[in-house]
Structures
1.
Amino acid sequence: MPELLADAPWMLWSIALPLIGALLVFLLPRRAAPIGLSTACLTAATALAVLFQVAFDGPRIYRVGGWGAPLGIDLMADGLSVIMLAMTAVVGTAISVYARVYLAGTPEKVRRFWPLWLFLWAALNALYQAGDVFNLYVTLELLGLSAVALVALTGSAPALWGAMRYLLVSLLGSLSYLLGVALLYHAYGTVDLALLGERADGGLILAVPLGAMIAGLLLKTGLFPFHVWLPPAHGSARAPVSALLSGLVVKASFYLLLRLWFTFVPEGQGLPILLGSLGAAAIFWGSVQALRQRRLKLLVAYSTVAQLGYLFIAFPLAGLDPALAWGGSIYLAVSHAFAKGAMFLAAGSIMTQGGHDDIDELDRVVDRMPLTLAAFALAGISLAGLPPSGGFVGKWMLLQAAMAQELWFWAFVIIGGGVLTAAYVFRVLGFAFTESPHEHEQHEVPLTMEWTALLLALGAVLLGFVAPWALPLLDGVLP
Amino acid sequence: MSGGFLFAFAGLGLLVIGAWALVLRAHLIRKVLAINVMGSGVFLILVGSGSMDGGAVDPVPQAMVITGIVVAISATALALALVLRIANATGKPALPEDQDRDLMDEEGR
């Protein structure tokens, strides 16, 4: 029995289960929430099972239907894949528990949320385990379509506009990526990532398709200056959806970017420095915009723009010790998923309680919702990179990589961005401790909502202690 | 010049036309159409690149294009549903920055 469980095709189940669950919710809309939540928990369990399989036995390949490439589809899971799978599992479970309580009052939203979210989860799990560039395109589109539909769930005009803009950008990004796939196939006669890595030899014939793919993915990740679609979409969605989009969905296109980068290892210093500079610009622009926002959810959304910039700082730093820079960037991506998920959930609780999210009018939230405010503060600690949080580990690794090569500009960007992050987090905390002159409505917030946000934020802080076990998983994946 | 090249260059042309309309047109249905034209361009490039050597036609790009068409149909359906919802909610099928524009672009004619 243990051998049977240890060798079971969990990779396949992590994709099939959420798909089955989504269809079941469609068929039994009255039971949407219980079916949805139990599918979510089972999906998380399968993803963690893949994590254990890879942690103990090394990278795995699963040939769907026994066909094998090039006729069939191969699933592939290595250290990077399972880190992203596990991140999705933990953050996804927390958001599912929160969403069940948060949406309880609006039955028609419950019926639509669960199938879309489970489709989205299936797309994420498939994307992290896809082994060829064309299946990656299909999963990318699945992901984009369900994410857009989730934004439109709110139903208000700003949310619909946000969803429409997001859809157009997302489709443009995927088309650019697909163009790259077409040119790659024409040049090398395969779409398999491993084979492409062996055959690709650099030069213009690789640069053009790779450029098209990277441009499309930057558009989807929302790196400055391609971020304009992100704050309206993330800021106008319902709280659990915002948490999903900011925490998980933008990481998928970043993962794909890393995957391509590790496969082809582009030569030259121009592109890494360009990506790093865009990242630096994103950190400053996103933070300044976050400081200027009046609405809490938009502040958190602009903070995502800034924190996404950090992930790209690794590109110009990877020269001397790739493991240090890339490890830091990936660790930062994971802890941002935890922290930003918690932050959006906390913002959702605050909005439910007071009926608004004006930062100036937070009106002593600390008295009414100490747990939620603690969640917000802990998430802020991880975003700003204070020890012992996951954000600290990621930023420290990047900083070490910068210092070792005496690249002081990047070190300055990393530290300066942390100070700016602390500034906008404390701006919110400040108003949460001050009384507002205006009266506001008061609603009851279920304790489940407060606790899920707090536990997720606690996870973001405790991630710092998991680094010694998580980082060795990346051995052999990094170039 | 083989047929494959002709397809690929026609695809490139469609891509440019689509991108141009996507940026300049305000009416959301026109933007959705523009994305579709761009998609057709990419599909043509894919199909064309599979038959450039003049020998046997490579079937793999054709399989990819079929999958791509399925994706494009789903995306178009979602986009059109969104356009309808936007038109119903705001009375105008356009993004906020285009709310004051003449959607049919008839002023110049």
Note: Chain A has a mean pLDDT of 91.
2.
Amino acid sequence: MNNIKLVGVGGLAASRTPGESIKTFALGSCVAVIMLHPPTRTVGMVHVALPDSAVARGNVGDRPGYFADTGIPVLLKEMAALGCSSPGNKGMIVKLAGGAKVMDPNNVFNVGKRNILAIRKILWSLGMGPVAEDVEGSISRTVTVAVDTGQVTIASPGKKDWQI
Amino acid sequence: MKHKIDRNEIVAAVRRVPLISTSASRLLQIANHNGHSLADIVTIVKCDAALTIHILKVVNSAALSRGREIHSLDRAIAIMGEEMVMGIAMSDAAEQLFQADLDGYAANRGDLWRHDLRTAIAAKRIAPFAKVKVNHDLAFTSGLLHDLGKAIISDFLKGTTEEIVTAIEAGQFEDYPAAEREELGVDHCDIGFELATYWGLPEPLLSVIRHHHHPLAAAEPYRPLVYVVHLGDIVAMMTGSGTGADAMRCNIDPAYGDYVNLAKDDLARIIFEAETEFTALISSLSGEGEQKP
């Protein structure tokens, strides 16, 4: 049986172990940022819950992945530790999933949208941009990325699985 | 129109649910009153041997004991705080419901408990932002119990998940409860209300259970509390503690701004702090980690 690394809310993981997958459950307004580095067959994922770590007042504790601004750099470090760093993050493929929408005319509960925008902005500042996204909508998503194939699979109760 | 299930069959299923214990019922009654003390809680718990044993077991778990063995119930309850005691009491009282399989929602066993606990924590943290004072202990307890109707109607919804999800995505229903009403003639709020009435729960809890998806329909005195739990429910779904197919398929009532004064940063802080509390509480109560198997 293939090994699965589970990523909780605000967690992150990277792997280049053949046969291994990384999985996170039930993304609501949270966003999974998935990184793939084909030359080294390395994959990574961070489960971002909020756009900005300012809310933690400098104390993100053991959950740097909880925030877009702290999670993405830490995931890149994890990937680099597995040997896939390159100038300007060249060769890194990024995909996004999650960020479900709450229709709030008061613009308070639209956390999914704010997460997506913050993540894109940080990726651009690091010379990267998502090549595929499955975001927004009123849907909960469970996301898996496989080391062997780099395939990103999304599951949601009541729907057939799909790939991005 | 004729629904696929007779409402009386579902109501009969409610009557088959065991009554909650006297101690759980008394705890719910005092949660409904401001000004109660931890001593009031100790008095009730002392009369329930099984609950006392469970509380002492949890307080002596690795997460809470810090190497000291605690034998006194007073001390245990002081360390745990009211929310954890209430969580244990309710999980014991309605264990069969909280741990139901929820096949009708394509959810996993334990998802309802995790959802309700996260809703309870979020509601307690939202309560101080209500424009009219809302008792935060009552907000917590209401959050714990708001969705119990799902444990009963889940059996009647088996096999409908794909059909309902497709219909919602085609715009045929405004939200998941509307699809439940189309399938069964009732939704989980109606059946939760039946159960809560059968159990003799206090009026504010009845109101939350019945109206948490449409808080404006609640009677004015209870409306602020119902809005607080409504928002707690949304926060739980947003942060990954849904109950399967209905997660994120419910609408926020935009009139919440008339009852709760919440800004973006307040919400972000609530989400982050609730995460830490949820992880600690669920670990202490059940010894499980945050992630699903």
Note: Residues 4-163 of chain A form a domain with the 60s Ribosomal Protein L30; Chain: A; fold (CATH 3.30.1330.200).
